[in-house]
Design brief:
Blueprint: H1 3-15, H2 18-25, H3 29-43, E1 48-50, E2 55-57, H4 59-86, E3 91-97, H5 99-116, E4 120-126, H6 129-137, E5 143-145, E6 165-168, E7 191-194, H7 199-210, E8 220-224, H8 227-235, E9 241-244
Parallel strand pairs: 3-4, 3-5, 7-8
Antiparallel strand pairs: 1-2, 6-9
Helix pairs in contact: 1-2, 1-3, 1-4, 2-3
């Protein structure tokens, strides 16, 4: 049983004629008869009584008729929904992002996206890069955006935008008057870091390695779970840090 057969059945039932039903369906009468015959064979029941001038439903046909109307109505509803989805008229987009893109970049871009596609519901989940990667592997999100490249089976990673790391200090810190700080001077001040595994932390570690430095040789103030928390701690004079420029552009 298929929807072409159901549609043919309904038109024949309503028009009480194979010929008139064929006109409505833009099909030949033999083609309509073939659809009805295939449906009757599938259901193992006669659906119409054929007369000289019209056809009428049998008891089996009368039983099928209301259910067939429901089936066809649901079919058209589903098809319309799929067509809307193809045209980005409706649907859901689930994004996963690490803290920098999730808190400082994507909210503004999502606003513009919603203006262009008001029927699409957007959900944004923010976590560390490692968790975002896991969400992507487990198909919990449609798209992941992190501060570091992600590798793995079934994952395609492409550069999206450029960012840079900047040093932040309390306004009363002695370095404010210096203007330029050599990277080696980092070892002389208490540093506030993001937690291990975060994209910000990994980027910083790699950058320091190119300068012959290691986080192990830098005084640790504390490790915090978000860039916003790091900035707040620096503002409170608890140490200095290196964070994304996007997070301190104001």
């Amino acid at each position: 049983m298929n929807f072409k057969q159901i549609e043919a059945f309904l038109w024949v039932a309503e028009m009480q004629s194979f010929t008139k039903a064929a006109r409505q369906l833009y099909m030949s009468q033999p083609a309509v008869s073939f659809q009805i015959k295939a449906l009757e064979e599938d259901l193992e029941a006669d659906l119409f009584q054929r007369g000289d001038k019209k056809v009428i439903l049998t008891e089996a046909g009368r039983l099928l008729y209301p259910e067939a109307k429901k089936m066809l109505r649901h079919y058209h509803k589903i098809k319309a929904g799929l067509d809307d989805l193809k045209g980005l008229k409706t649907g859901t987009l689930v994004l996963g992002a690490s803290t920098i893109p999730g808190e400082y970049i994507l909210p503004l871009l999502i606003g513009g996206f919603k203006e262009a596609y008001p029927g699409i519901r957007v959900a944004l989940k923010v976590a560390g890069s490692g968790l975002v990667t896991r969400w992507l592997r487990e198909r919990e999100i449609d798209l992941g955006i992190t501060g570091v490249p992600v590798e793995g089976d079934g994952i395609e990673c492409s550069p999206w935008m450029q960012d840079e790391m900047v040093l932040i200090v309390n306004p009363n810190h002695p370095w404010v008057k210096s203007g330029v700080i050599d990277i080696s001077e980092i070892k002389t001040s208490v540093m506030i870091f993001r937690e291990q595994g975060s994209g910000t932390r990994r980027t910083l570690e790699k950058k320091l390695e190119t300068k012959g430095l290691s986080l192990e040789n830098i005084p640790h103030g504390m490790e915090l779970g978000s860039t916003r928390a790091v900035i707040t701690a620096v503002e409170a004079g608890l140490g200095v840090s290196i964070v994304s420029r996007c997070a301190v552009k104001d």
